[in-house]
Amino acid sequence: MNQSISLLSLFSSILHVFLVLNFYGGVTVNGDIVRNFCKNEWIIDPYLNYDFCVSSLEANPETKTSDIFGLAEISMELCLRNATYIHTYIEGILKDGKEEPRARMYLEDCMEFFSTAVEEVQEAVEAFNGKDYYNALRHVSNAGIEADTCKIGFTEAGVDFSLLKKQDYNFYQLTKISIKTIATIHDSKYYKI
């Protein structure tokens, strides 16, 4: 059983390196690095929403001339903006005061979690700019964990999470995209070129 897991892991690693070398070294043959990146990462991870990945990245016109480094920077910028937006969104819900009393406590916790997520993404950007891709990955991952902790609090308490469901999903997808772009750079050793 361990041998089959090792073979699967080896195959996955080889596939990822092949995709990296063929598609992410710069703008691809057809010039569409975003669609190629999203498609290839979706093949590896079907929990990544291909359409969301493409539309999120293509919303920034700089992706038309970006390489994988540019996509990583853009994806982290999207994460940072989204985490900041969610923090502000939760703040607005709390000021409105229309939520059920039990939800208020969890919303306050979530506001803190997303405040920490903002800090984590900021640290990821700093690490990335310093070519410390391992810590950039760690910080983006931590931001995703903060958001997930928000959701878990609601779920475990049996409190309606619908107020944040869409925002949570979007942030989850954006952190996946950031992690995948940074991991592609880290795993492919582009930074040694």
If you had to describe this structure to a student in words, what would you say it looks like?
This is Pectinesterase inhibitor domain-containing protein. The chain crosses the membrane at residues 7-27. InterPro entries: Invertase/methylesterase_inhib, Pectinesterase_inhib_dom, Pla_a_1-like. Keywords: Disulfide bond, Membrane, Signal, Transmembrane, Transmembrane helix. This protein has 193 residues and is mainly α. It has a single domain (2-192), classed as Butyryl-CoA Dehydrogenase, subunit A, domain 3, CATH 1.20.140.40. It is 78% helix and 0% strand. The protein has helices at residues 2-23, 33-44, 50-58, 68-96, 101-129, 133-157, 165-188. Helix 2 (33-44) runs antiparallel to helix 3. It is elongated, with a radius of gyration of 18 Å.
What are the SSEs and their pairings?
Blueprint: H1 2-23, H2 33-44, H3 50-58, H4 68-96, H5 101-129, H6 133-157, H7 165-188
Helix pairs in contact: 1-2, 2-3, 4-5, 4-7, 5-6, 6-7
Q: What's the level 1 CATH class?
A: Mainly Alpha
> What is the arithmetic mean of pLDDT?
85
Count of the domains: 1
Provide the succession of SSEs. HHHHHHH
Distance between termini?
38 Å
Please compute the radius of gyration using only Cα atoms: 18 Å
- Largest beta-sheet characterization: none
Annotation, overall tally of beta strands: 0
CATH topology: Butyryl-CoA Dehydrogenase, subunit A, domain 3
The helix count comes to: 7
CATH superfamily: Invertase/pectin methylesterase inhibitor family protein
Given the C-alpha coordinates, what overall shape results? elongated
**Roughly how much helix do the residues carry, as a percent range?**
over 70%
Please indicate the percent range of residues in DSSP E strands (runs of 2 or more).
under 5%
- The computed structural class is mainly alpha
Unreliable sequence segments: 1-30
CATH architecture descriptor: Up-down Bundle
GO molecular function: enzyme inhibitor activity
Organism: Papaver atlanticum
Protein name: Pectinesterase inhibitor domain-containing protein
InterPro entries: Invertase/methylesterase_inhib, Pectinesterase_inhib_dom, Pla_a_1-like
